[in-house]
Amino acid sequence: MNTTNKLYLIALAVVSFAFSSCTSEDPVSENDGELITDVTLTFQEIDANGNAVGASFDFTASDSEGIEIGSTPTVETVTLTKGKRYEMSIDVYNSVASEDITEEIRAEGDEHQFYFLGSAFTSSPFLSYEYNDEGAEIIGLKGIVTVQQSPGFTTADFQLLLRHALDKNYPGAENPNFQDYAKAGGETDLDITFPVVVQ
Amino acid sequence: MKTGILLTLILLLGFNIQAQDCSLSIRGKIIHLENNEPIEAAYVWVIEAEEGAVSDQNGNFTIKNLCRGDYTVTIQYLGHKTITDTIKLESTTFSKTYRLEEEAVGLQGVEVHGHRDAVQTTTAVSALYGENLMESRGENLGESLKRISGVSTFSTGNSISKPVIHGMHSNRIMIMNNGIRLEGQQWGAEHAPEIDPFLADEITVVKGAETVRYGPEAMGGVILVNPAPLPTKKMSKTSLNLIGATNGRMGNVNLVHVGGSDKIKGLGYRIQGSAKRSGNVKSPEYFQQNTGLSELNLSSSLGYSSSKLGVEAYYSLFHTELGILNDSHTGNLSDLENIIENGRPFADGEFSYDILNPKQRVTHQLAKLKSHYHISESWKLNFQYGFQLNHRQEFDKRRGDLNDKASLDLELYTNTIDLYVNHTHKNELSGTWGVNFIQQANSNVPGTGVTPLIPNYDMVNTGFYAMEKYSKGPLEVEAGIRYDFRNVNTARYINEELKTADIAYQNFSAFLGGLYHISPDLTFNSNLGSAWRPPNVNELFSEGLHHGAAAVEIGNPDLKSEKSLKWINELQYDGKRTHLEFTAYLNPISDYIYLNPTGEIYTSLRGTFNIYEYLQANALFYGFDFAGSYEFTDKISGYLKGSIVQAKNTDVDNYFPFIPSNRMDWGISYDFSKVTDSRTNKITISNVLVAKQNREPDFDIAPPPSAYALFNISYNKQVNIGDDKLNLGLQVQNLLNTNYKDYMNRFRYFSYDMGRNVLIKINYEF
């Protein structure tokens, strides 16, 4: 066998290999890991000493479809009582991949922070918020919500914002009602507006 | 006395004859018989007139001031058979293409000239080579090609730019990597062409519709990135490029070695490698965070050619990892609105070479085997096989472990086979008939944790084509026809439900072109070509979130193929001191596919997003390009380039988005070197003027940015060290550190463009 023939054989082998490796793979169903389908706010009334009073109750915003045009999230109305203090904890869940995202947010506490905006916290607020997270890092997974004794309104909007990859040292960023949050950089992971009613 | 009168009479007669008939010329092009590449420095001699000429780098020659009559022309080039031709020169200028055949006898010590790749087309063609290409070194393909009038870029930040020819980009134009159509994920706006400009010694832009020659999708034009032909004689040459830039603190190195074998005649090789690293780009007032880039490219080829047979093997690797401007990754519509209102990133940033999420990692490999065989003196059989593997990974800013996983991970395999015959006949008819086969498989690599934006698919495209060209005197006429059929099978899961589709497309395309040498200096060419493009898989099936645009894009599986007709005319004047090129085109397209904002908003727990859908409409593109240069004196010369393109949706009478605005570029050069010295020693000051895009679409998330003017300076000097050549270059781009935004840069929503950049370029050839 001379060199030319050998070359042709090698070429033929390469071509046939390339063709056999060249059909697309069967598709695989992906669980959207980044998706957030359920956000739950759990309120536990507390007394002046910080002790729990009565049973806790919660309100949920959910969007089971993920990215599917036409569906809109279901958001429950938050109902609170005038003059009371609550410990509010936030749970974030991905029902598509059955993942608890709360833990991930806690683990990456230096990159995440919740902000509490909307008419309930700004302009003429009847709610006030302080961060009360377990570690040193301000995240907002846990905090204290105080309802005014005699608010001028009884309904308002409670905008819950989760910012990711922000600069936590930006002046003002430690304020839970920081309206210029965009200036601290980063992007929005959650932006839900709960209607609030105080009784 | 009598003798005197007679002499005067003869002289007068002679002058008369000269005045009337001695303004004729012989023009021609000299190319290699084997590969149609032009031959530079071939010697042409007209025996009767005792006049000679040497062909230029495009293989062209002109012998002027000839009288009417019969002439014998000889054409000689070392290592090739001499051609002797008899020409009858009558009232018009004579023009002919000569094909030189390589001689079997080997000649030692012949230097192979870097000849240019000829596209045997009658369409308007512009090329970037020599000094201009040298000046563009260090830039990516898109940026380099901006030097050609009619070509601009569609970019995403400063590291991703796609070439735009006459308002068309992505899948509406085609890029050929050494003869193989580059098959990457070209559909994405932020998907740059996967090719290293360093592998080319000439980049050619064909501005006409070239579907017949190159296959579907070559609607707006074709970009040919071609390395120099391999040596066929003994030789050894190495070229080293070192480039440094202040902005982004960029370093770029390229090494090419070309060699020809001593032992086996006709055996030659080339190896080339380049590496590039840069960090955060600086806008005049701040650093753009996470805009670093790392690139590593290789290419190599090995070839053998004899008088009958030619074989070439080629491999190229392109690998890049690049950061995407941090601030462009917005969470939802209000994030996007916030940054647009701010007009620039919120933070000033700092310099860093780190490439973090969001980022892209792309590897493109191409292997090719090409062979030709001379069946007879006038028939040549060609075979070309190409294999490509494109691996694209896009990483988003995500939570926890997901940060290490790509959110888009695509593997695209492409096989291309070309089988064609060329014939060249003495009766001035030449042509190509062939079949072209493309097979493609796209797979989403599982484990991204994101529902794939585009499905897995298999595509098969088969095309048959024939082209013929007739040249007679100053006229060349060319026509061609092609038939293609394509089959696409797709499959993917959405919400755990398998969705499949099987779609077939077919189309005829044809072209008719002509070229006429009005005078030896003036050429006119006109080309009318039809072209088509089947919808892309993303246009058919995409369904997902686009973080950069806070948009949800919805595909439409019922889209039809786009069909276009492009009529392009070019007038070229090549005088002693003046060079002028004027191009005008008209390009109606039926069923033009575009992304249209629906005006609806999608709400999720993440916030709200604009919804876009793919629609089809009839479109009309038209415009003009011009390029001219003039040598005022031996020292001072100037150039002027510009282009205007209009793109209208004729169904609803509005404009399409992301079409380049009017632009113009002019400059003045001063040459320090003596007239007799061929070494470069030149300074150029240039000014780029870009108008505001007043032909704006009805909807855009931000208005078009204002017009801007940039000043650039470059100084180039060539030094000879023995037989070696050293080229030194110093360039300053955006000299005045102007704050500007370009309409064609998608990141104009988030940031100003690049500030001042000082580059040092060293090229050493030994």
UniProtKB/TrEMBL annotation, chain A:
Signal peptide (residue range): 1-24
Keywords from the UniProt entry: Signal
Name of the protein this chain belongs to: Uncharacterized protein
Species for this entry: Algoriphagus aquimarinus
From TrEMBL, chain B:
Topology class, membrane: Multi-pass membrane protein
Compartment(s) where it occurs, according to its Swiss-Prot or TrEMBL record: Cell outer membrane
Domain of life: Bacteria
Residue ranges of domain TonB-dependent receptor-like beta-barrel in the record: 347-735
InterPro entries: Beta-barrel_TonB, Beta-barrel_TonB_sf, CarboxyPept-like_regulatory, Plug_dom, Plug_dom_sf, TonB-dep_rcpt-like
Keywords carried by this UniProt record: Cell outer membrane, Membrane, TonB box, Transmembrane, Transmembrane beta strand, Transport
GO biological process terms held by the UniProt record: siderophore transmembrane transport
Molecular function in Gene Ontology: siderophore uptake transmembrane transporter activity
Entry-linked SUPFAM superfamilies: Carboxypeptidase regulatory domain-like, Porins
PROSITE patterns cross-referenced by the UniProt entry: TONB_DEPENDENT_REC_3
Domain (TonB-dependent receptor plug) ranges: 119-222
One Gene Ontology cellular component: cell outer membrane
Similarity comment text for this entry: Belongs to the TonB-dependent receptor family.
The protein's name: Iron complex outermembrane recepter protein
Organism: Algoriphagus aquimarinus
